[in-house]
Amino acid sequence: MESIEVVVGRIGKPHGIRGEVTVDVRSDEPERRYADGAVLLVEAPRGSAFAARTLTVAGTRWHQGVLLARFAELPDRTAAESARGVVLRAVVPADESPEDPDEFYDHQLVGLAAYDVDGAHLGEVVGLLHGAQDLLRIRTLDRREALVPFVSALVPEVDITGGRVVIADRPGLVTPFPDDQDDQDDQDDQDDEGAGA
Fold first, then answer.
1. Kind and range of the H or E element at 180?
2. Which residues pair with 69 in a beta bridge?
3. What does DSSP assign to residue 162?
4. CA dist., res. 125 & res. 137, Å (int)
5. SS3 content of the chain, % helix, strand, coil (to 5)
6. How many whole angstroms separate alpha carbon 88 and alpha carbon 38?
7. Which of 102, 123, 115, 111 has its CA nearest to residue 169?
8. Is 69 left (phi over 0), alpha (psi -120 to 50) or beta?
9. Are the CB atoms for 174 and 114 separated by under 8 Å?
10. How far apart, in whole angstroms, are the C-alpha atoms of residue 117 and residue 84?
């Protein structure tokens, strides 16, 4: 069975003297990804001397909204400090889906065709940006990139098996404002005239 790697977090600062670290969680399922005994792949930051290729979860707890984790390979604060900035990845089956039917892995969304609510083709999902608000990166038919907040009001339908997302488009979201399109058309006309001279 084919598998893929998904980013599930990044190690932050040490917490205490026994090797515990803070984790910037990048998974909607931390209880699943950071279960005791889970083995996570490691990607050390550039210039880091951290040599471990994997880390094994030895325990986790929440403290003031922050995940604190212990890893078998980080027995003390010095080892924990050396792991600062390490990106953690989990290996999951390529066909695995999150437990919540309204959640998706990035790899499931990339490549989906984007349509508006009337069925007009808008482009293709080429990536996601994660932050305070997740954003779908849409490559439009005219090769622009548009960012769409990944919320149900703007993305009312995600059909993984059908290979499409539906976007409640409005001027300026994916399709340009009419004035912007007129300006672009004028610029294209000028470029065409200059090329023929």
1. helix 178-196
2. 21, 60
3. T
4. 6
5. 15, 40, 45
6. 11
7. 115
8. beta
9. yes
10. 45
| Of the candidates 106, 127, 115, the residue with the CA atom closest to the CA atom of residue 162 | 115
Whole-model pTM above 0.70? no
In 3-state terms, what secondary structure has residue 193?
helix
DSSP 15-84: -SSSS-EEEEE--S-HHHHT-TT-EEEEEPPTT-----SEEEEEEEEEETTEEEEEETT--SHHHHHHTT
End-to-end alpha-carbon separation of the chain, Å? 59
Q: Which residues of the chain have pLDDT under 70?
A: 1, 180-197
pLDDT, tens digit (0-9, with 9 covering 90-100), for 116-171: 999 999 999 999 988 778 899 999 999 999 999 999 999 999 999 999 999 999 88
Residues 6+ apart with CB under 8 A from 34: 8, 9, 23, 25, 57, 60, 67, 69
Euclidean distance between CA atoms 152 and 48, whole angstroms: 40
Read off the amino acid at residue 189.
Answer: D
Q: What is the helix (H) or strand (E) element at residue 167, kind and residue range? A: strand 164-167
Residues paired with residue 56 on neighbouring β-strands, in sequence order: 39
> Which of the 8 DSSP states describes residue 134?
-
